[in-house]
Amino acid sequence: MEIYAHRGSSGTHPENTIAAFQEAARLPIQGVELDVHLSKDGELVVIHDEKINRTSNGKGFVKDMTLAELKAFDFGSWFSDDFKDQTIPTLREVLELFADTSHHLNIELKSDVFPYPGMVGKVVAVVEEMEFDTRVVLSSFDHESIRAAKQVAPHLETAPLFKEVLVDPLDYMYNVPADALHLYFRTAFRPSIQEALKTGAIIRTYTVNKEQDAEALQDIGVSAIFTDFPEKMIPYATKKS
Question: What's the CA gap between 236 and 1, in Å, rounded?
């Protein structure tokens, strides 16, 4: 079972910041998850929420601010004064951080609330320019964006995100089309997902922060877990004999 750092090492560092990704980059884990929105001037920025209110000292929607305006805010002090120098990173800055590592990167397209026209093409362009083609999976709760990404770049791995219990999950995955399923971890124990796992389907689950949950998911053979505490979950990266 693979371990992905959710929004970087977000349990120990301010989420989706360079500090959180630097911590994840030093760990012997397999992957890192991050979230992408589009700024007012069309820049790809890494943040989870549509608004900056929760994770910065500013207020307002990401889509209503330029990159320069967003960069002026403090994205670390809300977590700890030790991180007061953290600013919102761009997708390019995060990819550069992992250029010399082997981590697989899950880029979540946060277009399920605002559609962000043109974002899919921008993400694909940066990924291809920086030669991360074989090292990314594009995921989203906006399955239209997943379909669009597959149309633009069929060679890139994609995965729709779900919180619901699924009926015929493989049929849906093939119809999108996509290469993997990213699910709320509790739904992985349902019969439909158990059957999908038996076929060798790639099933990654979020957000797993308790060891007993990680162990249970390891036992049923899920492909990966997303966790806020990647270092704590390293022991579960190896299958039990």
Answer: 7
One of 6, 13, 104, 182 is an active-site residue; which one?
A: 6
Specify whether 6 is catalytic: yes
145 Cβ neighbours under 8 A, 6+ residues apart: 109, 111, 119, 120, 138
**Active-site residue, from 13, 48, 103, 155:** 48
Query: What single-letter DSSP state applies at residue 228?
Result: S
Q: Could you tell me if 218 and 239 are in contact, meaning their C-beta atoms sit under 8 angstroms apart? A: yes
Pairing of strands 224-227, 44-46: unpaired
DSSP string, 132-167: -GGGEEEEES-HHHHHHHHHH-TTSEEEEEE-SPPS
- 155 an active-site residue? no
Name the pTM for this structure. Answer: 0.97
Q: What is the pLDDT of residues 25-82, one digit of tens each?
A: 999 999 999 999 999 999 999 999 999 999 999 999 999 999 999 999 999 999 999 9
Are 91 and 36 spatial neighbours (Cβ–Cβ below 8 Å)? yes
Give residues with Cβ within 8 angstroms of 105, minimum separation 6. 31, 32, 33, 34, 94, 95, 98, 132, 135, 136, 137
CB atoms within 10 A of CB 176: 17
